[in-house]
Write a structure and sequence with these properties.
Mean pLDDT: 87
Radius of gyration: 25 Å
CATH architecture of the largest domain: 3-Layer(aba) Sandwich
Strand content: 15-25%
Structural class: alpha/beta
Number of strands: 14
Number of domains: 3
Largest sheet: 6 strands, mixed
Low-confidence stretches: none
CATH superfamily of the largest domain: NAD(P)-binding Rossmann-like Domain
Distance between the termini: 41 Å
Strand order of the largest sheet: 3-2-1-6-4-5
Order of helices and strands: HEEEHEEEEHEEHEHHEEEEHH
CATH topology of the largest domain: Rossmann fold
Number of helices: 8
CATH class of the largest domain: Alpha Beta
């Protein structure tokens, strides 16, 4: 896959609001099969598109990538055949990989998570202000439409028009933050009619900062959303109970995924970092099983 193809693939993932990690080789110390500028995408299901080195390096990049999708943090990953654990420092993750051909790779890994999706219902001045403020702080803003599965917040500013159905749908969908722009008295009446609580629907939505204008109300609402930090509902598939195994040949920790190399022997499955380790194991399984017993 060329870099152009990779960037097109990344753009398609972004438009589809699918999370991924962009891994770019920034330094390659020979002998390595990768070179500076090589890059790959790590998807939430463990798929790796692109090239950042051989199967040994790919296994490490995939494993670290899945961890970064959970944390949302970027890191510089150093994969080396040498033991450099004592050189670890902030922002740098060092992984010892005895399978490497002798060189060291440094790979910058950056999670690309979809911007929080906020849906605004209504056409009042406050609704329009919510759209403007949300866009200014980098949220993905949508006016109206059906509630998407990965919506972070639903804000209703319709001055009483059709708000009950929207609020019920948002609560039923489990949207992390649901806000109704209304006075306290009218908000209480709406909640009572629907049998909902303030824990389910924030009304009056927003922090009490003495807001008066539509723009100030919008700022107060997003201040409350930011303060609560509702978790995005973009689904990152769990890795499952067994996420890694030890390569019986080289002792490396191998991420278990649909693309992992494996072999069955005596009723047990063994995973390998590279085809060379798999071939060595199949040629003489007892040699390596005795060494690990």
């Amino acid at each position: 896959m060329s870099r152009f193809d990779l960037l097109e693939r990344a753009d398609a993932l972004r438009r589809a609001r699918e999370p991924y990690v962009l891994a770019t080789v920034v330094r390659a110390q020979r002998p390595t099969s990768a070179k500076a500028g090589d890059s790959a995408l790590v998807l939430a299901d463990g798929t790796l598109d692109g090239f950042v080195g051989g199967t040994c390096a790919e296994s490490t990049v995939r494993s670290v990538g899945l961890q970064l999708l959970e944390s949302g943090a970027s890191t510089l990953l150093r994969i080396t055949p040498d033991d450099e654990a004592d050189q670890a420092q902030e922002g740098l993750l060092i992984v010892n990989n005895p399978c490497l051909s002798g060189g060291t790779l440094e790979i910058f890994m950056e999670p690309m998570l979809p911007a929080p999706l906020v849906q605004v219902f209504g056409d009042a001045p406050v609704a329009r202000a919510l759209l403007r403020v949300g866009e200014a702080i980098g949220y993905a803003m949508v006016a109206g439409s059906a509630i998407a599965p990965d919506t972070t917040a639903v804000l209703v500013a319709s001055h009483g028009y059709g708000e009950e159905a929207v609020l019920e749908a948002a609560v039923r969908a489990g949207v992390p933050y649901v806000g109704l722009i209304a006075s306290r008295r009218r908000g209480d009446a709406v909640l009572d009619s629907l049998g909902l609580t303030r824990e389910q629907v924030r009304t009056p939505a927003g922090l009490d900062i003495g807001a008066r204008s539509a723009a100030e109300i919008a700022v107060s609402v997003f201040a409350e959303i930011i303060a609560q930090r509702p978790r995005s509902t973009v689904e990152i598939p769990p890795a499952g109970p067994a996420v890694a195994a030890i390569d019986p040949v080289c002792g490396m920790s191998v991420e278990i995924s649909p693309t992992s190399l494996y072999a069955d022997h005596a009723g047990q499955t063994y995973y390998f970092c590279a085809s060379g380790c798999k071939a060595a194991f199949l040629a003489d399984p007892q040699r390596y099983l005795q060494a690990t017993s």
